[in-house]
Design goal:
216 residues; 6 strands; transmembrane helix; DUF3105 domain-containing protein; transmembrane
Length: 216
């Protein structure tokens, strides 16, 4: 009987020892899990903060670029540019025109690349809708013309056409704004697009750039 009691006590002691060991393992596992989770959360928070900070800096840079002067850009008082719909010819004081009275039908300006000259009165109406007009003459290098065609082909509210009589080889126009650039890689090209495609100069923001005149 004494031997049986001793064996039972030993078994209970081993069971208790195993139970305590299991509890200790569970505590260690919980501590490890909590620690790892805390590190993961801290890492995610830190990474999220880094991404947010980077995005904020990039946004600030874009806003600064949008406000920075565009070199040699010409401006006209938008309030003094006529906006009447007319059917008679209009003589514009600049070429290409950047505003003024125009045809009641706008020129399609949703990534349209025109290989031939387009009617100015319709093009001016497109500028009123917030489009950027890229023009070039015979002096423009073919490689630059191709690059600009590709850019226009990817940018809604922009269109492109030749204007033989213009003074600069490559010019960009928006309502009341115009700049002559040195080539397709001139940084003023991106700056002009960024600022004036549906930009603050637009008299009729959000107006259609499709379902107008197709001058192809």
């Amino acid at each position: 009987m004494a031997a049986n009691r001793s064996s039972t006590a030993d078994r209970r002691a081993r069971i208790e020892q195993m139970r305590r060991a299991e509890q200790a393992r569970e505590r260690r596992n919980r501590i490890i899990t909590i620690s790892v989770s805390a590190l993961v959360v801290a890492g995610l928070v830190g990474f999220g903060g880094y991404v947010l900070n980077k995005e904020n800096k990039e946004q600030e840079q874009r806003e600064a670029a949008a406000k920075a002067p565009i070199g040699e850009e010409k401006s006209w008082d938008a309030k003094k540019l006529g906006r009447n719909h007319v059917t008679k010819p209009v003589t514009y004081p600049m070429k290409p025109p950047v505003g003024g009275d125009h045809d009641q039908v706008w020129l399609n300006c949703d990534r349209n690349v025109y290989k031939k000259p387009v009617p100015e009165r319709n093009a001016v109406h497109s500028l009123e809708h917030g489009a950027v007009w890229v023009t070039y003459n015979d002096k423009a290098p073919a490689a630059d013309v191709k690059k600009l065609e590709e850019k226009v082909g990817k940018t809604s509210y922009s269109f492109m056409s030749p204007v033989k009589e213009q003074t600069g080889a490559i010019m960009l126009s928006a309502w009341g704004k115009q700049v002559t650039v040195d080539g397709a890689d001139d940084p003023r090209v991106d700056a002009f697009f960024t600022r004036y495609v549906q930009g603050p100069q637009t008299p009729e923001p959000g107006a259609a750039c499709t379902n107008g005149l197709d001058a192809q």
